[in-house]
Amino acid sequence: MTLFTLIALFIASFGEVTVGAHQIALSFTSILFMLPLSLSMALTVRVGNTLGQQRLAHARKVAWNGIVISVIVAAINSILLWVSAVPVIALYTSNSEIQALALSIIALAVIFQLSDSLQVNLAGALRGYKDTRIVMVITVLSYWIVGLGGGHWLGSRGVGDMIAPLGVHGYWIGLIAGLSTAALLLGWRLQRISIRG
Q1: Does the model's pTM come out above 0.85?
Q2: Distance separating alpha carbons of residues 169 and 9, to the nearest angstrom
Q3: How far apart are the C-alpha atoms of 189 and 197, rounded to whole Å?
Q4: DSSP 179-194
Q5: Residues 8, 19: contact at Cβ < 8 Å?
Q6: Is the Cβ–Cβ distance between 29 and 109 less than 8 Å?
């Protein structure tokens, strides 16, 4: 939550249209995020209970089945986000400039759904294994270095002479990169931990 709040502060310098579009996209995606987040909490409990019963092979199966379900949930959320974007944005504002920018951000948020759902559920499964320190290190590095650092760089500086500063889109691309990095590293960690039992 702190990461999203800080990004909103950086985006504030881009003007009210950008802030409005960002808030609409963030609000809409946050509502959809509740399903992967709930699944993550259930996965933590389910994996932990199974491990407590000394059923190590079953705990591994529970963890990876939960990850498969999280991918399915992400696909459903992405479709729902894209199909309902225009009418939902219209509920927030009638300003056509904000609507257009919010729609372009939501196009990025469609991609965001997979990595966000994966990383939160991988972290949930790892918490079930009582593996919290490494999860914290991975998420801090992924969110703050890759996500915020990369997003701020893309948003305010671009990429040399090749790509001009991307503004709010740069921050969202940074979020996608940060969440994807977290998902990859957490997936690697779950693979190692679940094999060890």
Answers
A1: yes
A2: 15
A3: 12
A4: HHHHHHHHHHHHHHHH
A5: yes
A6: yes
State the Cα–Cα distance between residues 61 and 194, nearest whole angstrom: 9
Q: What is the pLDDT of residue 153?
A: 94
pLDDT for position 197: 57
SS3 per residue for 154-167? HHHCCECCCECCCC
CB-based contact 180:151 (threshold 8 Å): no
Task: Report how far residue 81's alpha carbon sits from residue 9's, in angstroms, rounded to the nearest whole number.
Answer: 25
Residue ranges covered by each domain of the chain: 2-196
In our burial notation (b when 16+ CB lie closer than 10 A, e otherwise), range 95-130 reads eeebbebbbebbbbbbbbbbbbbbbbbbbbbbbbbe
C-alpha–C-alpha distance, residues 106 and 168, integer Å: 12
- Find the length of the chain: 197
Query: What are residue 159's DSSP bridge partners?
Result: 163
Token pair, residue 168, equals 């709010």
119-128 confidence digits (pLDDT tens): 999 999 999 9
Block residue for tokens 């914290």: 136
Place of tokens 């977290």: 182
Residue whose tokens read 């079930």: 128
Distances (CA, A) of 14 to 17, 93, 155: 8, 18, 10
Name the token pair of 132. Answer: 């919290």
